[in-house]
Amino acid sequence: MADSTPLSEALTYLASRREEHVEEVRDFLTIPSISALSAHKSDVARAAQWLKDRLVKAGFVDARVDATPGNPIVRASSGHRAGLPTILVYGHYDVQPVDPLESWAHPPFSPTVENNILYARGSSDDKGQVFMQLIAAEAWQKTGQLPVNLKFIFEGEEEIGSVHLEQYVLDHQEDLKADLAVISDTPMYQDGYPAVCYGLRGLTSLEIAVQGPYQDLHSGVYGGAVQNPAHALARLIASLHHADGRVAVEGFYDEVDPLAPEERKAFAALPFDEEAYRSELRVPALHGEPGYTVLERIWARPTLEVNGLWSGFLGEGQKTIVPASAHAKITCRLVPHQNPNHVLDAIESHLRSHLPPGVTLAVTRGEGAPGSITPIDHPAVKAAEEAIERIYHSPASYIRMGGSIPVVVGFQEILHMPTLLLGFALPNENFHAPNEHFHLENFYRGAETVAVLWEKLGAGHV
Ligand SMILES: [Zn+2]
């Protein structure tokens, strides 16, 4: 082939080995690496070893399994060539439990291909996508040289909260340092809409207790003489929002990055049926901060939510009391660049200044994690967009996600690098549910897209 290039050779490598790769990923998926169940501890270890061996086979001779107090972490790297950007690829090889087993059409650890769809626990979350990353790198290793320096970190505790990952990252900062992290552990926007996800929301939490009399009081004897803590809590909570949905806490929005016009345009370009969304949720109307679309509200605007509240007598029948106390749990989804502590300060001072008379207030502050964002004009975002367009022959979507992924916060706070979420699963592929599956078309194209991405990044995009 006269016009063969290093990239076309890498892509040919992938295209000519599709069947082989499906067989291999099926083998990986037969290992029931369920991190939540201690009975599967040795299976989790076996999956780590499988991955390590496969990385060695792919040419990553330094691949290793690092012990942690929990499940091991698999590492590998392509070595360091000066002048090339360094990319850290993260994924997880543990999976969710499988019950209820009877709801599976095929046994969860007997990977089955039907209509070009691969059914197995872990097929899309995340072993299939981990293997997809591996073969994309292998394609370069076997046909020439990777155009970037690659480092891999695959953990076995993602499904149980990444218990030992943060400490591991703290202990290996020098080793893990990179210009960019890339994670394939999320869905695309929807079928036919491959997406670059460049922002996540953060989280902060608090619990409040409104204290009245020293114990529940007889409402016939004392009712009318003291403030009822349940009433006081209801007033306090009502004061947190304006009727139109905006958060009423002074300073709550102070550090919020406004949405860039090009982001609003990108979100507006996505198909989104508000009426279908409403009816799926079975609410009479959607409600949220005025001036923003639903996608803007859930991806790029902060929220303050009461997650639970309780007070007084909750049993059967009546109990005529003035309750001694009333309680609420509150969390906020935060957006870049809100500082979780500043937000808690603002809420606490709002609560104290709005506290009705006759009761006291105790506030217990919880853990916080900031939101994260890779600016939409970051060269890596552009590179991912071009890679998607080259392989999918359709425009890449720009999306953010409303949830939080702790490892992304760790990469941002500890390693000071941005993260691209480049997932190739579909939102309805049953992550964590029976009949988890992965469309093989996206397995193939995902690997090809990643292979192209490495070239784009190597060509100076980062
Ligand atoms: Zn996952």
Portion in helices = 25-40%
Task: Return Rg in Å.
Answer: 25 Å
CATH class of the largest domain: Alpha Beta
Mean pLDDT over the residues: 96
Which stretches are poorly predicted, pLDDT < 50 over at least 5 residues? Answer: none
How does the helix and strand content classify structurally? alpha+beta
CATH architecture descriptor text of the largest domain: 3-Layer(aba) Sandwich
Strand element count? 18
| Largest sheet features | 6 strands, mixed
Number of helices: 15
How many angstroms does the end-to-end distance come to? 30 Å
What is the strand arrangement across the widest sheet?
A: 1-2-6-3-7-17
Q: How many discrete structural domains?
A: 2
The CATH superfamily label of the largest domain reads Zn peptidases
CATH fold assignment of the largest domain: Aminopeptidase
Report the portion of residues in β strands: 15-25%
Shape: elongated
Describe the model.
The protein is of the alpha+beta class and 462 residues long. The protein folds into two domains: 286 residues, Zn peptidases (Aminopeptidase), CATH 3.40.630.10; 123 residues, Alpha-Beta Plaits, CATH 3.30.70. The chain is 35% helix and 20% strand. The strands form five sheets. A six-stranded mixed β-sheet has the order 1-2-6-3-7-17, with helices on both faces. A four-stranded antiparallel β-sheet has the order 11-13-9-14, covered by helices on one side. Helix 1 packs across helix 4, helix 1 packs antiparallel against helix 15 and helix 4 packs across helix 15. The longest helix has 22 residues. The chain is elongated. It starts with 5 loop residues before the first helix and ends with a helix. It binds zinc ion. Zinc ion binds next to loops.
